[in-house]
Design goal:
The complex is a heterodimer of chains A (about 270) and B (about 260). With about 270 residues, chain A is α/β, with parallel strands linked by helices. Chain A has 2 domains: about 1-90 and about 165-265, 3-Layer(aba) Sandwich (Rossmann fold), CATH 3.40.50.300; about 100-165, no CATH class. Chain A has helices at about 1-10, 55-65, 95-100, 105-115, 120-135, 150-165, 180-195, 210-215, 245, 250-265, and strands at about 20-30, 30-40, 45-50, 70-75, 80, 90, 170, 200-205, 215-220, 225-235. In chain A, β1 and β2 form a beta hairpin. In chain A, α4 (about 105-115) packs parallel to α6, α5 (about 120-135) packs across α6 (about 150-165) and α8 packs across α10. Mean pLDDT of chain A is about 90; it is low at about 1-10. Chain B is an all-alpha fold and about 260 residues long. Chain B contains 11 helices and no strands. In chain B, α2 packs across α10 and α9 (about 205-215) runs antiparallel to α10. The radius of gyration of chain B is 22 Å and the shape is globular. Classes of the chains: A alpha/beta (about 270), B mainly alpha (about 260). At the A-B interface, β6 and α4 of A face α7, α8 and α11 of B.
Chain lengths: ~270, ~260
Amino acid sequence: MASAAKRLDVVPGTPAPQVSFEAVTLQLGGKTIIENLSLGVRPGEFLCIIGASGCGKTTALRLAAGLYQPTSGKVNFDGQRMREPRREIAIVFQDYGKALLPWRTAAGNVSLALEAGGMPSAERLARIEELLRTVGLPGHAGKYPSEMSGGMQQRLQIARCLAQEPKTLLMDEPFGALDAMTRQGLQDEVLSLVAASGATVIFVTHDLEEAIYLGDRVIGLLPHPGRIGIELAVNLPRPRDQLSTREHPEFLRLRRQLFDFIKATEQ
Amino acid sequence: MNRAALLWRMASFAIAAGFVALWQLIANLNLVSPVFLPGPDRAWTALVRGFSSGDLWSKLAGTLEHMAYGWLAASIAGIAIGAIIGSSRMMRTYVAPSLEFLRPLPVSAIIPVAIAMLGLTQAMALFVIAFGAIWPIMLATIHGFAAVEPRLYEVARSLQMSRLAVIFKIALPSASPDILAGMRLSLTVALILSVVCEILAGLDGLGHWVLLSARAFRSADLFAGVILLGVTGYVTSVAMSLAEHRLLAWQAAQR
């Protein structure tokens, strides 16, 4: 990606977070979903958020996307307060079946993001083809989402998000509904896509191993109301590998730590 | 088309042919006076004669014109109003009950009102046809707009799409199956009301032709007009189905 190199050289030595939560509290319908959450995500960082269901991890992601506004506190992006969603922040939803336009083909779905970005129609076709190839869907441009498997549809949604040329990519349990083999393949693809684009990622999952495998850092949330319960740096070599990374003593240690954390929250 | 479908199609044609034959038999046996019931042979002759003299062409054109203008006006207004009501929960809550009161109102009941206000004019016909045909379209559009997947609105928000783009790229296509179904229903309503208006207001069209033929005891001409109206209804509805099929090709992929 041409713009990727440009972004990467911003990363070194810049401690300013790209996404930051400053004492964020969110109440919905009289219930406190998230309380006093403070968090900074460095540019280019891969942050994973885990937690038991109902701990507010999806809500935190929606706050980062600008789809919710905090009741108190601030969510900042590049030092500016977020008041509404912006194109530089793309979000991959878990329910790809609902997030794609069923009346548009794969190419049309990717095109939606390019149209929103104001790309002239003459340039779109080549870009669409490139994006579909990037996510491993070459030759499927003319297919409707309903003609594609779950894994392919999620790839398509990722392609649409990449078409936004996001600085930050938010992923809400993107592989939760996929089978184990497809999931592992997509994990590796996301890692290489992110490495190539230099985007910052916030990745929500309930799969502890997935969080360690992908992330530079893993945050565990405590439920009722959502707040940070554990924070772990993942010092595993990159590129990651499905076999050797998962057998690494550090991986096993982190997994144990997170497992104990989740077990404690459930009691 | 596979073998079974072909057989069914042939069977349906055979049954239609059987009805025509039965009609011919009844006419030939003079079970009903030929003054009131012509056979299919005489109706066909009248149809051919009407077309070759040009009379039926202009009547058919008149009816099609009434129907098309009324239906198009109903479609545009119905989709626009339906979109406004359907995309706002507040509007749905406040306006929907009034619509439920107006909807079952027989349109024939407002014809005298329309005549009183607009006279026996084309404008009156346009108003009545559009008023009758708007309901299925408007209600279908409201339903279609209300049922847009909320997730898609979030996608639109994170893409920072404009309001107009959201309507034309998300809401309208999402509601299009409902809207087109409503438009198909309205097509029939528009034809019925065209005929009614022509009969009541003496406007040029097949309705007027049928009325005059009946009064003059020209039963063959009467039946020619009725047949032509049936064909009009059938052809427009088939054309609409084809258009629907084309526009909603993505739905066929979904099944």
